[in-house]
Design brief:
Blueprint: E1 10-19, E2 22-29, E3 35-41, H1 43-46, H2 49-63, E4 73-79, E5 82-88, E6 92-94, H3 95-102, H4 107-126, E7 129-130, E8 139-142, E9 147-149, E10 156-157, H5 173-176, H6 183-199, H7 209-218, H8 231-237, H9 249-264, H10 268-280, H11 313-330, E11 393-395, E12 434-444, E13 448-458, E14 462-472, E15 480-490, E16 495-502, E17 510-521, E18 524-531
Helix pairs in contact: 4-6, 4-9, 4-10, 7-11
């Protein structure tokens, strides 16, 4: 920051990117040596109370999301001289970078991107949150081909009416019209990004906001430009009416898996992830671990009008509406050269370094060639820093999600001590630390299961909780390993850890999880096994 303020307890390594709203640096947590991404709010934006409220709101929202497909939030810190979000550092590149380098991906790789980010959206939708700004800039691709969803800067609670906001090229018809925030709008934006992965172009190419609005509201879905096997997903996801789309991201994942297996076989996901990893490997200097120099993050989008389509009778009315909306959007888009609106956090870099060429990017919230516009005022809730002599306020998430409906209540960050992000590698526990109780229960879904782990400890220090996922053909049979989740918690009061896992299609009807801890629990391990709902011929879950 211009005033030199840094988050206490962290040593800055280098800048990853910067923009009109602030900058992002790679830093190391002094207590554990863990590398993190610190997202600083600029001095200019800190002078705008509405923007600061949005920044705090993003911290609250991220604190309620726990998913391996969403960038993990560690801490929000606010002091008289600055404000910052401390987040997981993803050693990856934005999907926008991949598309700029390769032009497009094949269908299997595109399906992998869509599935991973849909699972991130599903976590948000279960918490009652709508992202509202899904686009290639907000999807990070790691070296192994996995992907994570980032940047919840203009997210809103489901059913609220925060106004017209988003990135025009990916906004659903109802989003242009200012209708209440809905998961179906996120499904639309994810499908538009999927289309771009497949074809190398956005679904609609209006030359300005007005043309884009009319095209999204009325123009036919360009499904014929995509491979025939995945056209049902394009047709469903880009449907003009929200009720014609899957109701949320989780429902869309089920449809995606059915289409993918039918078209490309049961190994489509493994092949697609390898292909995506190969594309990311073409951009080694853009990974945070590469140590490249940072660059700015502001770029102006350019679009061109297509041919062969003109609005009908209803479209001309939509054109008039869109001209008004477009005019508002033009004057509130940071990428167009004017100061950003309070809600436009998407020009904020988060973890990956700026990209070369025409589209500099700096991670989860890099704008790339698609500006985010938000003409409306931010929520009215006005959280304020806690008073008292402590100069720095620091807030960390709790296991429970933020309320999913209504306006966000006022909130005051309170000082925290002894916090550390998930360390890598796992820190050595204190010799006096004990895990005295361990239990797990599994709630199955159609293709996924939610594990709730209960933990009782004695002493102090970090406890590593390891969840090993399995599939099997009978209850209690843990035959086919299907991944591992690791969570680090602090010993003390009884703790509950909740993790979700999505299983591949057609590899067994029983979901299983085995939980162990470091240090080991008194009973060594806990496990549970339940039949997945899709196997209707089996006994119902207990």
């Amino acid at each position: 920051m211009s005033n030199g303020w840094t988050v206490p307890g962290y040593t800055e390594v280098r800048e990853l990117g910067s923009g009109g709203s602030g900058r992002v640096v790679l830093a190391v947590h002094d207590g554990t040596g863990t590398a993190v991404a610190v997202k600083y709010l600029s001095d200019r934006m800190r002078e705008d109370p509405a923007f600061v409220r949005e920044f705090r709101a993003e911290a609250r929202l991220l604190g309620g999301l726990v998913s391996p497909y969403v960038t993990q939030f560690y801490e929000y810190v606010e002091a008289p001289d600055g404000a910052a979000l401390v987040m997981e550092l993803i050693d990856g590149v934005s999907l926008r970078s991949v598309l700029l380098e390769s032009g497009r991906t094949d269908a299997e790789a595109a399906l992998v991107v869509l599935k991973g980010s849909l699972l991130g959206l599903a976590a948000a939708h279960r918490a009652g949150v709508v992202h509202r700004d899904y686009k290639p800039e907000n999807v990070l691709v790691a070296a192994d081909g996995s992907s994570k969803l980032v940047d919840f800067g203009i997210a809103a609670n489901r059913g609220t009416t925060p106004g017209v906001a988003g990135t025009p090229a990916y906004m659903a018809p109802e989003q242009w019209q200012g209708q209440p925030a809905s998961p179906t709008a996120d499904v639309y934006a994810a499908t538009a990004t999927f289309f771009e992965c497949l074809t190398g172009r956005k679904p609609y190419d209006g030359a300005n906001f007005a043309e884009l609005a009319v095209q999204h509201i009325e123009a036919p879905v360009p499904e014929t430009e995509a491979p025939e096997a995945v056209r049902p997903l394009i047709r469903r996801g880009l449907a003009k009416r929200p009720e014609q789309r899957p109701e949320n991201a989780e429902a869309f994942v089920a449809e995606l898996e059915a289409v993918a297996v039918a078209a490309y076989g049961p190994q489509w996901e493994e092949r697609g992830q390898r292909k995506l990893a190969a594309l990311a490997a073409l951009l080694p200097l853009l990974f945070p671990s590469a140590g490249g120099a940072a660059a700015g993050t502001t770029a102006v989008a350019t679009t061109s009008i297509g041919s062969g389509w003109a609005p009908g009778r209803g479209g001309w009315f939509a054109t008039g509406l869109a001209l008004v909306l477009g005019a508002v959007l033009v004057f509130t888009t940071d990428a167009a050269g004017t100061p950003p609106s309070p809600s436009a956090l998407s020009d904020f870099a988060t973890t990956s370094p700026a990209e070369p060429g025409s589209t500099p990017t700096a991670g989860p919230s890099a704008p790339g060639p698609s500006p985010t516009a938000s003409p409306t005022a931010p929520p009215t809730a006005s959280p304020s820093p806690s008073g008292g002599p402590t100069p720095t306020a620091s807030w960390s998430p709790t296991p429970t999600a933020w309320p999913s409906t209504g306006n966000s209540p006022s909130w005051s960050p309170t000082p925290t001590t002894g916090w550390s992000p998930t360390p890598t590698p796992t820190p050595t526990p204190s010799p006096t630390l004990q895990v005295t109780g361990l239990g797990v229960s599994l709630k199955p879904g159609v293709y996924r299961a939610d594990a709730t782990v209960s933990l009782a400890t004695r002493g102090s220090g970090p406890v590593t909780v390891v969840l090993q996922w399995f599939l099997g053909d009978a209850r209690g049979v843990y035959a086919v390993p299907d991944g591992t989740d690791t969570v680090v918690v602090q010993a003390g009061a009884p703790t509950t850890v909740v993790r979700s896992h999505t299983f591949p299609r057609g590899r067994g009807c029983y979901a299983g999880v085995r939980v162990t801890t470091k240090p080991a629990a008194a009973g060594a391990a806990a496990s549970d096994s339940q039949p997945l709902v899709r196997c209707t011929d089996l006994e119902p879950p207990r």
